[in-house]
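1st attempt posting a full record on here, be nice pls
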Amino acid sequence: MYVEDVRNGIRAVISQYAKSKGVVVNREFAIDKIKEEMLELSEALSDGSFGEKTDAVSAELADVLGMLFVLSDVIGVDPIKALEKKWFSKLSEIGVTAGTLEGNGAAYDSSYVDIGVGVIIQREDGRILIGKRIGKHAPYYSIPGGKIEVGETFEQAAIREVSEETGLSIFMPKVIGVTNNLETFSRERFHAVSVILASASYDGDVELKEPEACEGWLWADPHRIPEPHFEASAKGVRCHLEKSFYASDA
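the predicted structure (as tokens):
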């Protein structure tokens, strides 16, 4: 089996779901199909069948596992119950864990807390830059941001993420708040804490630099942010408006 075959198989599963609207027989088909592909991939990886392509296929296996988590939200299945413990054990043997998921699936690993940044870019008229997400964060709106890379300061991460996502160069971003995103954790079993930074000084024009992750950017009134809104971003905007360092859930 090649990586392309896995992608095509997953697309077929999603197509079945889109047409079936959650019919039980197709629910079982999707779960079984993904398990089958995971088994074939994991066995091939274990015996070295992929040679130099092992790393690429390992990443693909993580995507396949991630797709099961996405589907589990649609069909109301607990992903932990859907995958027996032996699956996680087998995947761990080849270096693929639920915590490695990116792109196609919601990460599922309650043993660690991820740290990211969210960046409020304020225009002269008070409006802030917000993007409409696609992919794993669809259909939510959000300020620019992302994960902190190893060795980065909060400010460096903010400058890099904004440049990568929007093409803007921001200057002197300041930490203004922190959010603990427990609503997202309860929904996706992915726990993240976000450091919120703000900058009113920037250069360049807004561009759509990552069309696979964002549908478009808009300048929005921070008092009337578009919905549905990503939890970390909504809390970050609250910190900005209320001049409060911590947006409490209480």
